[in-house]
Amino acid sequence: MTVTLPILEKRALSAPEFHALKDMPPELEWYANIRSEKTRRAYRNDVKELSRFLGITEPEEMRIVTRAHLLAWRTDLEQRNLAAATIRRKLASISSLFDYLCEQNAVLHNPVLGVKRPAANNNEGTTPALGDSQARMLLDAPPANTLKGKRDRAILATLLYHGLRREELCRLQVKDLQQRSGVQHLCIHGKREKIRFLPMHPMAQRLIDEYLEAAGHRDDQKGPLFRPVKNNITGTLLKPLDPQSVYTCIIRKYGKETGINASVNGFCVHSLRSTAATNALEHGADIGKVQEWLGHANVSTTRLYDRRKSRPEESPTFRVKY
After folding, report:
1. CB neighbours of residue 78 within 10 Å
2. DSSP H stretches of helix in the chain
3. Residues in contact with 132: Cβ distance below 8 Å, sequence separation at least 6, in sequence order
4. DSSP 8-state symbol, 248
5. Are 155 and 169 in contact (CB under 8 A)?
6. Contact status, residue 292 vs residue 176, Cβ threshold 8 Å
7. In what order do the strands lie in the sheet containing 183-189?
8. Are 187 and 243 in contact (CB under 8 A)?
9. CA 6 to CA 11: how far, in whole Å?
10. Distance (Å, rounded) from C-alpha 274 to C-alpha 164?
């Protein structure tokens, strides 16, 4: 018996597109397989930098790179006085590419594996955390009588009381405010599409309620929770906030108004995540629970926020008496 397959009236790819994808080099497949746009951009920049250093013009030329080439590149990075963490990240990007090439049988081994990387400071993270008084000052900085002020207060409280990444904050929808076991939770869509549920802090819940009441989009369940209050370019307000605008128009803005920008070197959005984690640990939170709370894949990352052993008031400095 002959089986006749149905003929599709409309195909998604044209014949030239089909053959172009069939012949795509694995180097380009590797880019396409990275889900995070931020990670894809960083990895692309690192590969471009290595390609410029080695004079590579075609993707396939990456397959003849040896350990000696990478050692020369590492030396160049060190001579440019780049931070150890930056050099480690660049080498990790190239290692990820070669892991994929090995998987696709394009190369026999990963030449990055034999390249020693700068030692990491695994004792404490470099992102600064705020003190309690500074956190309270930042929370009180936005005006309480304007829509933008109410939104910004709700955003700062969401970050400071829940330790979210700024991408996670911008991804929140109204429907992500959910009741679980009688307690209001935030449904967080984290890295690698992982979902976690965080009980809401009463202060953050109150400020979000005030913002939604003023903004009037509480019933728009599938819409973004935090939205622009004005848009001078397109006029479109029904869209999520851009992560960069959270940094420039909220964190840096109120950091400048409160003097935190000047007093805390390196103050950024991630500082609020660092502040939340540090504060929770200092007040007795279990580090395993904090790991789940932050969405860390490994507890060693969470330990970077554990600064209980480096409290200034417990330093031997203040035990010295003459």
Report:
1. 12
2. 15-22, 26-32, 37-54, 67-79, 84-103, 132-139, 147-162, 166-171, 202-215, 243-246, 252-258, 260-263, 269-282, 287-294, 299-303
3. 279
4. I
5. yes
6. no
7. 177-180, 183-189, 195-199
8. no
9. 12
10. 10
What is the Rg, in whole angstroms, of the alpha carbon atoms belonging to the chain?
24
Provide the annotated active-site residues: 165, 191, 270, 273, 296, 305
Q: What is the pLDDT along the chain (322 residues), one digit of tens a residue?
A: 444 444 445 567 676 766 655 667 788 888 888 877 788 889 999 999 999 999 999 888 889 999 999 999 999 999 999 988 899 999 999 999 999 999 988 889 999 998 998 876 555 667 889 999 999 999 999 999 999 999 999 999 999 999 999 999 999 999 999 999 999 999 999 987 899 999 999 999 999 999 999 999 999 999 999 999 887 777 678 899 999 999 999 999 999 999 999 999 999 999 999 999 999 998 889 999 999 999 998 888 888 888 776 677 777 887 788 8
198 DSSP assignment: E
What length is written for the chain?
322
Residue 69 contacts residue 55 (beta carbons within 8 Å): no
* 61 in Cβ contact with 106 (< 8 Å): no
In the chain, what is the greatest distance between 2 CA atoms, to the nearest angstrom? 102
